[in-house]
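Reopening this one. Same input as before:
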Amino acid sequence: MNIEVGGFFSWKEGIHMDEQVISFCTDYFFHYLLIHSPMVRLCIAEHLSGLELKTVDVINSERYPSHKDGKKYVLDITLKDHLGNLYNIEMQNGYISAAELARFQIYTMSMIDLQIQEGVQYQDMRKVHSLIIYTGNPIRNFEHLWHEVELIDGKYEKELYNGLIVMSFLQTKKMEEVSMELARSDFYQLMRLFEQEDNHKEEQTSEVAKEAVELYDRFISLEEYIYYKAIQRDRLWAESKIGEGTRKGFEQGLEKGLEQGIEKGIEQGKREENLKRACQLVKKKYKVDNLEWLKTCTSQQLDYLFDMIIDDINYDEFKKMICHYNQ
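Same output, byte for byte:
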C-alpha cells in the first residue's frame, strides 16, 4: 500500500524508514544551510531586496509567543541585513493549502510586530521580505516560476507607496522559465539545486552553489543528522497515519467518521512515537537520564520540542521553554 505524504514523500506499508530520509530539498537541511552559510544568506537577501548588502545575520533565535488557541508563531528562518530589513525564508515541500497561505501571511506580518516590540517607530519601519521556495505542484492561480505579492489597489493596479511587506513564491517545478542569462546567476544556480533531488550531485560552477553542496556533505556526516533523521521518520509516520484516517473517513462517507479517523491517526501517529523519540533526542543531546517530565508534555509541547532541539541552549533553559510553552 502506498500512502502519499505531503506531496513529497511516500510511505510503503511494511518498509522500515532506516534508509536516508533527509534529502537535499528538505527544510531540515535548508535550515542548517542558512545558519551556516553567510554566502547563501547574502545571495538570497540581495536577490529579494535588490540591494547590495554587507551582512545578513540569522535572528531566528527570536521566538514569537504562542497564540491563545495554541498555534505556534515560529518562523522557519529569520534573517536581518545590516540596513535592518527582515527576511522570512521557508522551504516548503508539502502541498500548499489555503491554511498554509494564511500561515505565510501571518508569519510575514509577525515580523512587522517584531519591529514594534523592538521600539521601531512607524516611520522607520523596515521592509519585510518573505520567500517560500516550493518544490510541489504549482499553487492554484500561480502558474509561473516567480510570483511576487504586495499590497496593491486591485482596481487601478497601483502598489501601496512604501509598502512594508513583499511575499515571493519560487516554484521549482517551473525552473524551465529561467532565461539563459538568469540561469548563470548565483541565485538561480542555488535554486536549481532544489529543483530535483540529484541536481546537487552535478558539478557546480557558482561559488554559492558549491558551498551549499559542501555543507550538505558535511550535514549528513554530522551527529546532529541523527536528530533530523529521527524527527523526519516521526513526521512521515505520523502523517501516514493521518492519511490513513482521512481515507477511512471518506470511505465511510461520514463527516464524523472522517474527523474520528484523523483524530485517531494523530493520536496514534504522534503521541506515543513522538514521546519515545523526544526522550531519545533529549537524552542524546543533553546526556541526562531523568526525563519523567517529558511524559507530562502535551502534543503541542512535543512538537515545539522538535523545533527547539536544534537550538544551542542549555538543558535547564530548554526544559523551562518546553514546559511553559502554550501554558
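So the earlier flakiness isn't reproducible anymore. For the record, The chain has two domains: 23-219, 223-324.
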